[in-house]
Amino acid sequence: MHNRSFEWCLAAGLTALFIAFLLWQTPSLWQDPLTPQEVDTIVATLEQQLVQPMDSKTLFISRVRDWALRDDGRAVLLVNLMRYRDRLDHEQSTLTFAGTPLEANDHYERLVAPLALKQGEYPLIGGATQASLPGSGWGCTRSQ
Asked: Which of 103, 116, 117, 130 is the most exposed place for a label (fewest CB within 10 A)?
């Protein structure tokens, strides 16, 4: 009979890798939904750091609070449909980034990607638009 220790070690390693990936991608198996205290913490952070006119900031925070309080602990699919302005609006911001809105978004994505990956988040698909809806302002294309 052949020595099967390598096969058993390989099988154990692949099984452990599969279980780790499963837990990373299905946090609802080991995490509970957000508690009201966690929602309060998120809202407090948004109130301190969100730079928007007060009326839209209040509406956004209210929507985030309502959504977070209904959290069931299951995965969320987020779709970002991005539309970029012609230039950055520094009048309402304390940020000093110099660049185009597209460059600012690229900078943001580079900073946030490692944080998102730690939480089990990852992009499923991404790309630039290939067409636009007439008169909608949607359909900005990336120039490389």
From this structure: 130
Higher local confidence (pLDDT), 86 or 126: 86
To the nearest whole number, what is the mean pLDDT of the chain? Answer: 82
Phi first, then psi, for residue 135 (nearest 5°) are: 80, 0
Q: Which residues contact 136 (CB under 8 A, 6 or more apart)?
A: none
Q: Are 64 and 49 in contact (CB under 8 A)?
A: no
Q: Contact, 34 vs 67, CB < 8 A?
A: no
Mean pLDDT value of segment 52-68: 92
With beta carbons less than 8 A apart as the criterion, state whether 67 and 78 touch. Answer: no
How far is residue 116's CA from residue 108's CA, in Å, rounded to a whole number? 12
